[in-house]
UniProtKB/TrEMBL annotation:
Role according to the record: Chaperone involved in the correct folding and assembly of outer membrane proteins. Recognizes specific patterns of aromatic residues and the orientation of their side chains, which are found more frequently in integral outer membrane proteins. May act in both early periplasmic and late outer membrane-associated steps of protein maturation.
Encoding gene (name): surA
GO molecular function: peptide binding; peptidyl-prolyl cis-trans isomerase activity; unfolded protein binding
Name this protein carries in UniProt: Chaperone SurA
Catalytic activity: [protein]-peptidylproline (omega=180) = [protein]-peptidylproline (omega=0)
Keywords for this protein: Chaperone, Isomerase, Periplasm, Repeat, Rotamase, Signal
Amino acid sequence: MKKLLASALAVAVLSGAVLPGATALAQTAASVEPIDGIAAIVDEDVILKTELDRAVNNILAQYAGRENQLPPRDVLQRQVLERLVLVKLQVARAQGTGVRVTDQEVEQAIAGIAQQNRVSPEQLRQQLAREGTPYTDFRNSIRDELLIQRLRQRFAQSRVSVSEAEVDAAMAAQANQGAQYHLAHILVALPEGATAEQIATAQKKVEGVKALIDKGEMDFSAAAVRYSDSPNALEGGDLGWRSVDEIPNAFASLMRNMSPGQVTDPIRGPSGFQLLKLVEVRDASQAGPNMVTQYQARHILIRTSDSVDDAKAKAQAQTLQARLMGGADFALLAQENSQDQSSAPKGGELGWFTRDEFGPEFGNAVAGLQPNQVSQPIRTQAGYHLIKLEATREADVGERNRRAQVQETIGRRKLEDEWNRFLREMRGEAFVDVRVGKTADAEATSAAPASNG
């Protein structure tokens, strides 16, 4: 939920109202709204000037007292508008491929955000009002973030795989090098099929940025905010902590020979020119506790879909629960009724698993049961579950956990590369008519001084 909180707030900062008539507005934009009322048309949707202004002002408020770290207003506007464009495109793609988010799921996510902030949902609503954020806008931004998350999950399932050989190689590398690296980067992007002139201009810009940093005229974070074309530019280019297997091989070899605070020379990659900064290094070779609680359980799943609404699926799960309370055999009911094709033939048997293996909602429900107890209907992304806990045990799963963690980190690195490529392709194929900030691109290109070297 913390990840959802951070992502949702980021989308909320950038997103304005998602108007019910946005599609129709895009189609008749010129006649319904004055030109200066529309910041951009994105395929069949629009970004209103008020949305863009609100998002830019939110960024300015975040940097109150540190405005000198931000680029000029028109360049900041271009950066924020590009993020809003990507949000619109991702949401449209998610909806177009059948991804759905129910009102109940949005409310659950908001309740989780309120809990993380140690306030009630009503107090969260009041806090948003005090900050000038309409609750409808915030709620729509949460829905957009959930849609984007699920689109990304589907993408990962279809495009990203990690072999056992890759895990073996990464674990061998970890045995020899247990370090983790906190990284930041600045990207000067290049379009697909860049011309020699475009490459020369980008190289001149990145060398100029590097010169500013080397001379101490600007720190790395401020330079990233002002000059980077990366989606995380407004976060100072921060990439967070990465283990060796999460860093491309060409970069990992550089990191091993750098000291904290050092910045690489410009590196040419598939997206353009990059500057990488090693912020910190820490030792990750010490393994955590190997003993974890495992659960053995059965479940019955009633899926929700476009043809089976939430209320109907819940009612079916409640009917099955009543039969179980009346003495029906759980395994037999699972065989006859569960829509989980992998476990239904086995009477719903899931084997031994750890708490978070099937997601937080499922794990929290299992952890709250006593052996032989059956849960209430539990809502997850898949649908409604009835869960029967059979036993628990303490198990040493250190090696298994380490392999799972390595597999996850490799998959995350691959997903990041593939997802960024997917976003660039989607952005390149989209119809985007920008109505504001026409001079921002020229400003961004010329903002960094040329290198004297």
